[in-house]
Amino acid sequence: MPINGKVALVTGAAQGIGRGIALRLAKDGADIALVDVKGDKLAAVAKEIEALGRKTTTFIADVGKRDQVYAAIDHAEKMLGGFDVMVNNAGIAQVNPIAEVTPEEVDRIFKINIEGVLWGIQAAAAKFKARGGKGKIINASSIAGHDGFAMLGVYSATKFAVRALTQAAAKEYASAGITVNAYCPGIVGTDMWVEIDARFAELTGAPKGETYRKYVEGIALGRAQTPEDVAGLVSFLAGPDSDYITGQAILTDGGIVYR
Ligand code: NAD
C-alpha cells in the first residue's frame, strides 16, 4: 500500500469526488480526516472508511473561513497522530452568463473555490513545516481551469486561480520538501452536475438532462467520468510515484481538453 500509515485530510469529503478520493486514499493505506459543511453525510463516509480498516475522524468546517481550515488540520493531527497529505477538494459551481453575474455570487464562489484552496495550502504547509517533515498538497481545479466555459465564466475564473496558486505555492514550498499539484477533472456525474444541468435548463430552455448528455457526448473516451477516475490521479499525486512532480495541474477528463 503506497501511503500506508500516512494521514490525509480531504475537504468536501461528504459526497461526490471528495468521498471517492477519501475512500481511495483509505484503500491506499492512509488514515483519513473528513471535512465538509455537511455533518450528517460525513458520518456515513466515516463508516465506509472504518469498514476498510482505516482510522478516520470528521470535522465540520467551511473552507472559506481561514480559522476553520486551521482548526480542521489541528483536529486531524490530534485525532490521527500525524499529517501528511492535504486534498483541497471542496468547491461549488455557478452557472450564469457574464451579463447576469452579481457581486454577491462572485463573493461567494471566490470565497469557497479560491480562498478555500488558499487557506488549505497555507495551513497545510505551516503544519508540515511545524512537524519538520515533507508533505503533499493536492488542489481541485478543472477542465474549466484550462479553458473558460460559456455560462461558467466565474467558475472557470476560480479554477484558473487554483492553477495559479498551485504554481506559486509549488515554487515557494519546494525547498521545504512540500509538493503542490492540482487535478483537473472533466464531466463527473455528481450532485454538482445535477445542479449545473438544472440551471442550464432554466437559462436556455433545454430539457433536463440534455446539457449533461451533450457534454458527455463530447468526451473522446465515450462515457462520463466517475469519482473513482478522479481518485486514481489523486492517489498517484498523494503517493511516492509523484515525488518529482510539483506545480502541475493535471487533466483527467477522458479527452475533452488537450494540453
Ligand atoms: P459536489 O457538489 O458533489 O460535492 C462538493 C462537496 O463540497 C459537498 O459535500 C459540499 O458540502 C462541500 N462543500 C461545498 N462548499 C463547502 C465549504 N465552503 N466548506 C466545506 N465543504 C464545502 O461536487 P463534486 O462534483 O464532488 O466536486 C468536487 C470538486 O471537484 C469541486 O472543487 C469541483 O469544482 C471540482 N470539479 C468537479 C467536476 C464535476 O464534473 N463534478 C469537474 C471538475 C472539477
List keywords for this structure.
259 residues; alpha/beta; 7-stranded parallel β-sheet; 8 helices; globular; binds nicotinamide-adenine-dinucleotide
Mean pLDDT: 98
Individual helix count: 8
* H and E string: EHEHEHEHEHEHHHE
* Distinct small molecules: nicotinamide-adenine-dinucleotide
The separation of the N and C termini measures: 31 Å
Oligomer: single chain
Rg over alpha carbons: 17 Å
How many β-strands, per DSSP?
Answer: 7
Task: Describe what is shown at a glance.
This protein is α/β, with parallel strands linked by helices. The protein has 8 helices and 7 strands; from the N terminus they run βαβαβαβαβαβαααβ.
Descriptive account of the structure:
This protein has 259 residues and is α/β, with parallel strands linked by helices. It contains eight helices and seven strands, in the order E-H-E-H-E-H-E-H-E-H-E-H-H-H-E. The chain has helices at 16-27, 39-51, 66-80, 103-130, 153-173, 191-204, 210-217, 227-238; strands spanning 7-11, 31-36, 56-60, 85-88, 135-140, 178-185, 249-252. A seven-stranded parallel sheet has the order 3-2-1-4-5-6-7, sandwiched between helices. Helix 1 packs across helix 8 (227-238). The longest helix is centred in the middle third of the chain and has 28 residues, at 103-130. The radius of gyration is 17 Å and the shape is globular. The mean pLDDT is 98.
